[in-house]
Amino acid sequence: MSHELPIPDYDQLSLGDLRHRVRSLARDELAAVLEHERAHGNRTPVTEVLTARLAQLDDGAEPSGGDPANTPGAASTPRTPPVSPAHSPDDNTPLRHGVAGQTPARGRP
């Protein structure tokens, strides 16, 4: 598909976010999203949400108010800052067993 989907950041949305955003789509917009999903990811839970919403629209449900283009973008996974050497633990590699001079005498004279 060369045209843009009616839901911004569609491919980055969680299933819960997608479930809420599809409620504002008209039937033709929802059908375009379903077609895109089947052609690309074809994720079963996503196609189930989309087909269930299509069935609701076919049964007389109306799209809810709001424009999905105005919704905030998908939340990205927070980046964990790298650990600096100042916060790293000391290099305290445990002693290897059986290495002369590194194993405690344990009661030997």
Automatic annotation (TrEMBL):
Residues 56-109 are annotated as: Disordered. Residues 5-58 form the DUF8129 domain. InterPro entries: DUF8129 (IPR058442). It comes from the Bacteria. This is DUF8129 domain-containing protein. It comes from Saccharothrix longispora.
